[in-house]
Design a protein that fits this description.
single chain, alpha/beta, TIM Barrel, eight-stranded parallel beta barrel, 12 helices, 8 strands, 44% helix, elongated, binds 5,10-methenyl-6,7,8-trihydrofolic acid, binds 3-methyl-2-oxobutanoic acid, binds magnesium ion, magnesium, Pyrv/PenolPyrv_kinase-like_dom, methyltransferase activity, cytoplasm, 3-methyl-2-oxobutanoate hydroxymethyltransferase activity
Length: 278
């Protein structure tokens, strides 16, 4: 594996070559370093940090300052992976001008290579304006968590013929608007496959089946570090919560038993110096 920086052109070439694309969320420096070294292609500073890092029950309270703060940390750790920062709720929905200004702030202040925005055809103008400013954009359709109250909950999208047709149309319009990739969240596998075949740009699925050009997951879900969040699309590759809990329990016990710190963790004073003390 080459350690050259992944660019938007590399992602385009991967789609054409039929080579799978891997993406994971990261919210801090040490996780970014670890995932980057493991070879993940793209790191998403997701607004899911609202849930996972900040403890909100949705992504709606997340601010530009939150995204920039965590985006900077991730960019410092990502040598090879392409870093994408989610635009937070209300940073791009009010006016096209504000959307471009905020996308520009994210690029200037974090060093990310792209931004991501949620929404279908209604976001085409925003996407093309940001792209015109020279900023690569990933679009995001299907279950768009910033619209959870309009969607009426976290439910699979595109299940009726009309809803599926709208998503296919949204995808085509967003490609035309200049998005270089498309995240599809919680939609039927056959629909995601149809969209993937219809587009020249890469599709990245989360709960959208194996027919996408790539996959994304929230890192805490994959590692088993977010108790209680178990939608169908999550595969737990580890149980870090248990490992952390067992490690900390051992630490507490060893403190009580004077097992920690041992001599190897402590600094010694020469006997002659000790004798001089009065
Ligand atoms: N830890 C975490 N992981 C995520 O993937 C994630 C977040 N947080 N926060 C922001 C959004 C919210 N997301 C969610 C939240 C809930 C479901 C969910 O309950 N899905 C059901 C659908 C059930 C149905 O309609 O049949 C599922 O079982 O997958 C899906 C995505 C995805 N994002
Ligand atoms: C789930 C992914 C696609 C996302 O938008 C996030 O983590 O915020
Ligand atoms: Mg998001």
């Amino acid at each position: 594996m080459s350690d050259k920086k992944i660019t938007v052109s590399v992602i385009r070439e991967r789609k054409l070559a039929g080579q799978a694309i891997s993406m994971l969320t990261a919210y801090d420096y040490s996780m970014a370093v670890t995932l980057d070294r493991a070879g993940v292609d793209m790191l998403l500073v997701g607004d899911s940090l609202g849930n996972v890092v900040l403890g909100y029950d949705s992504t709606l309270p997340v601010t530009m300052e939150d995204m920039i703060h965590h985006g900077k940390a991730v960019c410092r750790g990502a040598k090879r992976a392409l870093v994408v920062v989610d635009m937070p709720f209300m940073s791009y929905q009010v006016t096209v001008e504000a959307a471009v200004t905020n996308a520009g702030r994210i690029m200037k202040e974090t060093g990310a290579q792209a931004v991501k925005v949620e929404g279908g055809e209604e976001m085409a103008e925003v996407v093309s304006a940001i792209v015109r400013a020279g900023i690569p954009v990933i679009a995001h359709i299907g279950l768009t968590p910033q619209s959870v109250h309009q969607l009426g909950g976290f439910k699979v999208q595109g299940k009726s013929q009309a809803a599926a047709q709208k998503l296919l149309n949204d995808a085509r319009v967003l490609e035309k608007a200049g998005a270089f990739a498309l995240v599809m969240e919680c939609i039927p596998e056959a629909l995601a496959q149809k969209v993937t075949q219809a587009l020249q740009i890469a599709t990245i699925g989360i709960g959208a089946g194996a027919g996408c050009d790539g996959q994304v997951l929230v890192i805490n879900d994959l590692l088993g570090m977010c108790s209680g969040f178990t939608p169908r699309f999550v595969k737990k590759y580890a149980n870090l919560e248990r490992m952390i809990s067992e490690s900390v329990t051992a630490y507490i016990r060893e403190i009580g038993e004077k097992q920690f710190p041992g001599p190897e963790h402590s600094f010694q004073l020469a006997e002659v110096e000790l004798e001089k003390l009065y």
